[in-house]
Write a structure and sequence with these properties.
347 residues; AB_hydrolase_fold
């Protein structure tokens, strides 16, 4: 078969409908050579358009990256188109960006999602307490430099647990960068620390002795980690053992207990900053979504309600689950976030 005839056979069997749609002509009524030329032009056009569409289509594939900040390797997860609105996800204790492993792809089709691991957590560097000052001021300083290094100029912040004192420090330092807040069991009010869980930790703030510190090491055991994930949930069978299976080996690394004790102590620096954070909320009025696990014994719902005092643009949801609300209600939180962000953040 001649080459031209082979092309003609392909054209008459595979292309006519395309040509009909694109050109409004019946290819079969055209001279062979003209039809072949026209079909090849159309095919080339479709190929180019298809390639461009593929390049522009947002992807939910999660990339695992590392960047140097002050000599430290800061690991982070990233997904979504970089020209889309950015979400900065700040994790809690004792986990890492791992807690967002399911949320990131659920949001990444429309948003640029970035979730770093703090020093001492996840896959980031974990220098000893002699090599790095583990305070919330310092964590916020590193994460602030991280946002600049990876080019985050404006973003919404997901504040959870330790993510609240890190994120509020960022917000107060650069309010012009913060578009919205998503608060999930992240405290900024004294009412949120008025429960039994905090009593031994508050004692450590007042008297930082080895004895007081040793009394807190029970919070770093496997049983305590499992409790954080399972307490207050509706159905414990929905909570994957992969959660504590990921976290506990990191807590058990040599020297990591001392890192966590240093941060337990440093958490005492946060309540004195609450008035400053509350003033930020009143002055700047960032649109805020609260999605709070109401059965949390660490940050109970008593810490969620006071946000209503200071925020005019607040969407408020208490969820029937525990501390790590994403584990049981991740799909619901993702939906609430998408609806909230679609209204509040320009694409």
């Amino acid at each position: 078969m001649k080459r031209a005839d082979a092309i003609w056979l392909f054209v008459t069997h595979s292309v006519p409908s395309v040509v009909h749609i694109e050109l409004g002509k019946n290819i079969m009524s055209m001279p062979k050579n003209a039809a072949i030329a026209m079909a090849l032009i159309v095919l080339a056009s479709f190929s180019l358009n298809s390639s461009a569409a593929e390049r522009e289509t947002p992807t939910s594939q999660v990339l695992h990256r590392t960047v140097k900040i002050d000599g430290l390797d800061i690991a982070y997860r990233e997904a979504g188109p970089k020209n889309a609105p950015t979400l900065l996800l700040l994790h809690g204790f004792p986990t890492s960006s791992h807690m967002f492993r399911n949320l990131i792809p659920a949001l990444a089709e429309k948003y640029h999602v970035v979730a770093p691991d703090y020093p001492g957590f996840g896959n980031s560097s974990a220098p000893s307490v002699k090599e790095f000052d583990y305070t919330f001021d310092n964590l916020a300083n590193v994460i602030g430099k991280f946002t600049e290094k990876v080019g985050l100029k404006k973003y919404s912040i997901y504040l959870m647990d330790y993510g609240a004192p890190v994120g509020f420090r960022l917000a107060v330092s650069h309010p012009e960068r913060v578009q919205t807040l998503i608060v999930q069991n992240g405290n900024a009010y004294d009412e949120g620390l008025d429960n039994d869980f905090w009593k031994p930790i508050k004692a450590y703030w007042k008297d930082r002795t080895d004895a007081q510190g040793d009394g807190l090491r029970s919070l770093l055991t496997l049983d305590a980690t499992k409790w954080q994930y399972t307490h207050g949930v509706r159905n414990v069978e929905t909570i994957s053992p992969d959660t504590w299976g990921h976290v506990q080996p990191l807590l058990d690394r040599p020297g990591n207990q001392e890192i966590q004790l240093a941060l337990f102590y440093s958490y005492g620096s946060n309540p004195s900053l609450y008035p400053q954070w509350q003033e930020y909320l009143r002055k700047h009025q960032p649109p805020t979504l609260i999605v709070w696990g109401q059965n949390d014994a660490i940050f109970p719902a008593a810490g969620a309600h006071p946000y209503k005092r200071d925020l005019k643009h607040l969407e408020f949801h208490l969820l029937d689950t525990g501390h790590f609300a994403l584990e049981e209600d991740g799909a619901e939180i993702a939906t609430l976030m998408r609806n909230f962000l679609d209204k509040q953040v320009k694409q």
